[in-house]
Structure formats: C-alpha cells, structure tokens
Amino acid sequence: MATSKRSKGKNEKPISLGSRRELFIDDYLIEDLQRVELRLQKPVPRNVAIDHNVPWEGNTCCYHTVFQDGKLFRMYYRGTHYDPGGHSTKRQVVCYAESRDGINWERPDVGLVNYQGSTRNNVIWEGYGSHNFTPFRDPNPKCREGEQYKALGSHGRALYAFKSADGIHWELLRKDPVITEGAFDSQNLAFWDPLRECYVDYHRHSVYIDGQRTRHIMTCTSKDFRKWTKPKFIDFGDAPLEHLYTNAVTPYYRAPHIYMGFPKRFVPERSMYGHEHNGMSDAVYMTSRDGLRFKRWTEALVRPGLQPERWENRNNMTAWGILETANDLPSAPKELSIFTTEGYYRGDGCRLRRFTVRADGFVSANAPLRDGELLTRTLTFEGNQLSLNVATSAAGSVRVEIQEENGKAIKGFVLRDADEIYGDELDRRVTWKGSGDVSSLAGKPVRLRFVLSDADLYSLQFVATPA
Questions:
Q1: Digit-coded pLDDT (tens) for 450-464
Q2: 381: which of 43, 239, 424, 462 fits an S-S bond (Cβ 3.0–4.6 Å)?
Q3: Which domain holds residue 449?
Q4: In total, how many domains does the chain have?
Q5: Contacts (Cβ under 8 Å, ≥6 apart) of 80
Q6: Under a CB-based contact definition with an 8 Å cutoff, are residues 41 and 285 in contact?
Q7: 210-220 residue pLDDT tens
Q8: 3-state secondary structure of 117
C-alpha cells in the first residue's frame, strides 16, 4: 500500500541505531507512509557464471554455495546428470570452482576423486552429503584448528557435519549426525553469527495441514557445531503458506544484524512444457531481524522470464551467498551479485547465471514525482552525519527534516532548510543550508521525515567523520 500508519505504543522505546546501517526492507523503522511504498526491486540478469557441461557434472547440478574468502571467491555445488531416456541419475559428487572477481569462474584440477579413470577434475568429495554438501568459512574466533571450513550435508534422514582446514580436503567432523528432525532433501545450511555468538542452521522440513504437505523451513542453533537446539519452524506472519524448496538465508554483510533469504518457491501443480516431473519455480525474497520471524515477499524476486528452459521443473534456484562484484558500467560503484540456475533437466548441462542489484538494493522506499513522505519511528543515533543510499530521476529529489519525539521540527533541521538531494549515490550526505553536522542531536530521541519525489530510498546510516 502506498499509504500506511502504524499504531505506536505509549511506552515504545526509541530504536537505538548507534552507527549501524539500516535498510528499508520492512517497516521496522517506519512510523508513517504517505504516497510511498516499499517496492521489491528486480535483479538484472548478467553472464553465465558456469556451464555444467563437463562429464562429471551435467543437467541436474544445483545447491550452489558462493562466498568470498580473502582475495579468492569460492563456489561449491553438486555434480550429477539425469538421463531422461533411462530415467536414471548418475553418481553425485561435490564440485569446486573459484574466481578472482566473482564473475568469471574456473574449475581447478584438485586431483582428489577418480572419475572414469582420471583425477584431473574439480571433484572434492564423494560419499555422505554429496547430494547437498553446503560449506562455509568459519569466522568464529574460537574455531578449532583444522575446522576453519565447515559444512552440512544430508545422508538418509539426518544432517552430518564436516570439517576442513583449507576448503578443499574434507572429512566428517563426527561419525554421528548432528541434526535429525527434518526432511533435508534440499540445501541445508549453517553459518556463524558473531552478533548472536552461535552457529545458526536453516533446513528443510514439511508441515501438514488437512493432510496436505507443504515444504517449509526450520532453524536451530549451536555453540560448537556439534550439539544443536531443538529445531523450530520459522514464522512468516501473514504470508500465505507456499512450497519453499530452499532457503539461502545469510546475514547481509553490510548490515549483519539483518538476515536475507532467497528461497526457491515451488509450484508443483503447474507445468508448461510437459516435463515428466510437474512443477515450476521462481526465486523469492525474505528478511529477518531475529532469525525466526521473517517478512516474506509474495511476488517473485526473479521470475523465470523469457527463457523457455527457466519455466521447466526445478529451475530458478538461488545459490547461497551474496558477492560484491565490479559493476558492468565502468564508472559505477561495485554492486551485488546473486546466482540462479537455468536449463535444469535440459541437454548435457544446466547453467548458473549471475544477477546484479545495487548495494542495499533489494527493496526501496519509492515515491512518484508527486511528493510522498516517510516518517520514521523515534530513534537515537551515534555520529555526526547522516548518509543515504538514494536514487532520483533528473526531476526528482529527496529532502530530510529531523524532528523531536513529539513531531516538532528541530531548529536548524527543518524541511525548509534542507538542501535538495538529487542524483544516484550509495553514500550521499544530508545537509541543511550547507551543513551536515548532526552531532548536537546524537543520543537524543529524534524522528526523520523524508520528503521524496520520483525517488528510491534504500538505506540510511549515521556516520562519524573527522571535524
């Protein structure tokens, strides 16, 4: 809705922002909207990152994981192929690729697994967990030696934990499974959350309502990656129950207190091209501030689009991970890359395609040329300047007023003194009559009033700059 107003409790405490970045991906900061809506943005399709056309991969490669590890970008995925004539799937192996820029990927010969008489391949693991092996680099400061990389993978109806010192050579962390409540026939993942100081898992399970099964997502936590809490289903609030095939939940690196998820939504009753297995999919988007309650957008983040092969069963699966990569435009700042599958079940090999969005750019507070307004809840901050990630048209603008808790404009920060902002920047400083110094208001309860015209507001952050 373009206009909304939330009820405010009489004893509602100000939001303590400190100096963290906040994104307009939900109504957490928002008190009132007038002719402004939160709009889901659409990632732009780019290059094919990797074509799974080598003998040990094939047309059912999936469950990709991508992350940056120092100057190196790493990718892990399942290698396998489905033969529609024989209705059979060849052996499943874990494959590895790497990149120096997150855009162009190569398969190193790791020499670990014999495939059809040769170890000249990029296969790093075969056995338990090969179906959906999902690794990560562990930043836990108390991480044990030899466990700098960890992974989850399923075998039977259980999840097993794995460890590695270098991300290439893997072994079971323990012989017994670590999580047993779930279905697990999906990409099940875990990561270290430094803010919560625990490992966090998200995995597949199902709920049954009136005898109908729906694919759902559970979560649990651990202090040591060995003993895990009892899993709970995550909460989607008012969003309708839909089949979510994967979850791809990750802390957003520019605002790690916010989790972002990119489930593959599965619509089992639809089929366009008569594949032997019914169903089609798209990529959706969700966010959380506590790891349990998620805002899930019901419209697609990535639609199947104009490629017929993306309308076939089990395509459009988003890889786990968000990468910061160079922009295709030579003078533009770095952007975010996500990756989704296409060509699943088709030909000799499916593909992983890269998509891009601007930094913080999955959702914006959007207003038409006719002015709209966004009023925040009461908040406190640290720092001496206000920075915005914002984009306008040539005719559009943004102006900011700072108010007291009761809504009265603060002298020196009233709307008529606000310098008009226009342009497209990730870090635009707000000024009033040429001055951006807000240090006199630091620590005090204030509200921000944004007047937007043909503009998108993505995020804000109070920052400390030298005097």
A1: 999 999 999 999 999
A2: 462
A3: 4-40+364-463
A4: 2
A5: 57, 58, 60, 61, 89, 90, 91, 92, 93
A6: no
A7: 889 999 999 99
A8: coil
